Amino acid sequence: MIKLYDYLPCPYGQKVRIALAEKSLNYELIEVDVTRGANRRPEFIRLNPFGRVPVLIDDETTVYDSTIVIEYLEDEYPEPPLLPALNSSALRARARQFEDFADTSFTPQVGQLMAEQAKAEAERDPTRIQRVQRGLENILNYINRELEGQEFLAGPFSVADIAFAPRLLVLKEMGFEAAFNRPHVEGWIKRLSERAAIANLKGLSVEPLPGAA
Ligand SMILES: N[C@@H](CCC(=O)N[C@@H](CS)C(=O)NCC(=O)O)C(=O)O
To answer: Per the confidence metrics, is the pTM higher than 0.85?
Structure first.
């Protein structure tokens, strides 16, 4: 039986839950409230010494970090695949690059915007907000160009798309229209939202989170 230690609003945990749903894998969810420090308890640090969700346990195997967890799932439960075919090395590299870009640039920047918006208006840093908004505009313009003539970012639906989905889906709620004047992004968001694994995703929220989120 698979166990997933996660906090529902965490975009990295959401990546893993999308992958589990795409692969129709059942699991037990154990909630770790990172906003209340539950991830700092010794019993959780024993699972992940870095004290971060998500952590997946599959029988004797404990894996943390969303990218590595999804790679583990891909190795252990290859169907349906979430990376391009084994003989498409270039496309596989492209999918991994987009996943890394989403994890280390897009998702944290949306997180910074959430952190600013959660503050009282007088305490917000307008320069930071402007810088982050410009950064997000640049990312979305780039993605729009990369999606021209493509359904998904790296061939068939893959980890590249999964990694963007969690934060892409909350941007509108934050008053930031990702699809605004970007027809390829608009079609992509629509295609992503129609997938059951994404449509049924729990925990979409604009709550700022500790860590890289
Ligand atoms: N690179 C990690 C990032 C995970 C992460 O940042 N998780 C956040 C919640 S979204 C967390 O556990 N934060 C708690 C902390 O850093 O204290 C992954 O992809 O799994």
So the answer is: yes
